[in-house]
Amino acid sequence: MSLLTAISLHAGKKKEVLLKFNKQESLLRIVFEADETFVNRIKVSTSSSQIKLDFPEPFDLTSQKDLPFQIVPSEKSVVITLKEKGEIKFFRLTAPARLVIDIQKMNMQTEKPPATVVSRGIVIDAGHGGYDFGITYGGVSEKDFTLSLAKDLGSAFSKKGKKVFLIRRADQYIPIAERINFVNQKSPEVFISFHSSSSKNFVLYSPKFEEQASNEVTDFYSLSSKQKKYIAKSKSLSNTIEKAIKDEFKAEVIRREMPLPLLNSVGAAAVLIELPSPVSAVYDQQMKTGIINSILNGIAAYGQ
């Protein structure tokens, strides 16, 4: 940072907070840096064009000049108003302690599938991507491993004569709505989404509907119109994949039913697979081969 300006709100000793930002194409990153106890107690509330931070105590804010957003500080809070609406995510980092806020423009262009042909096959979703790293540990990043696994699994299915469609073929961020549209345009027999778990176990997520639930998320994705008639097939798919993973790894598999938009909104037998945390599993070639064999065997058994 070359140009800094101090925003001193009140007299007396206060917590020092450093504000930085970085802007690249359609991504704006805002970083608040302070001591770890302070950062961990910041409360964040957001809308598509505004972010409010409630701090645990009075503070002095030091900031870069020429900010690409409007900021209004008070004694124990900061309100940020964005020039353009965007998808907002935030997370905390250590060494040094930081609250990081990422704003992705809503009109970001990604590789969109052609709105054409209805074709049967398998759609594979590599979770996260682009600025969304997912779980990271050491040199392993969730977005990279899920993409590598999706590509290798796709190749294995192709060799068996299956049509395969990858939602993400590169390190790019793709919103949930576009992932859902991709699946429904392809009209596959099976949809698989890969993520990493925070536990040592494999976790399988199946769709679930809560009849009383009605909110903006369910209305936006039109949950009731897609997955309901595939619920039994999705459960059967989870059953065969669970058995195949147990046979391959001799390990416990946790099953969960949840109303996840990515599962509930697609018209196909669907399962989200969380792989064991990189903290407890070594993601070498042997591990990857075991996962691929499990999925191949699980889907083969599902199709019988």
Question: Could you characterize what this model shows?
Answer:
By secondary structure, the chain is an alpha/beta fold. It folds into two domains: 4-105, Immunoglobulin-like (Sandwich), CATH 2.60.40; 122-302, Zn-dependent exopeptidases (Aminopeptidase, 3-Layer(aba) Sandwich). The protein is built from seven helices and 18 strands. The protein has helices at 36-40, 142-159, 176-186, 216-221, 231-249, 261-264, 285-302; strands spanning 4-7, 15-24, 27-33, 43-46, 50-54, 59-64, 69-73, 77-82, 86-93, 98-105, 122-126, 136-137, 140-141, 164-166, 190-196, 202-207, 253-258, 269-275. The protein has a six-stranded mixed beta sheet. A six-stranded mixed beta sheet has the order 14-11-15-18-16-17, sandwiched between helices. Helix 2 packs across helix 7 (285-302). The relative contact order is 0.12.
Compact overview of the structure:
This protein has about 300 residues and is of the alpha/beta class.
CATH architecture of the largest domain: 3-Layer(aba) Sandwich
Q: Structural class, please?
A: alpha/beta
What is the CA-based Rg, rounded?
Answer: 22 Å
Low-confidence runs: 1-11, 108-119, 212-224
CATH secondary-structure class of the largest domain: Alpha Beta
Largest sheet: 6 strands, mixed
| Number of separate strands | 18
Q: What is the third-level CATH name, the topology of the largest domain? A: Aminopeptidase
CATH superfamily annotation of the largest domain: Zn-dependent exopeptidases
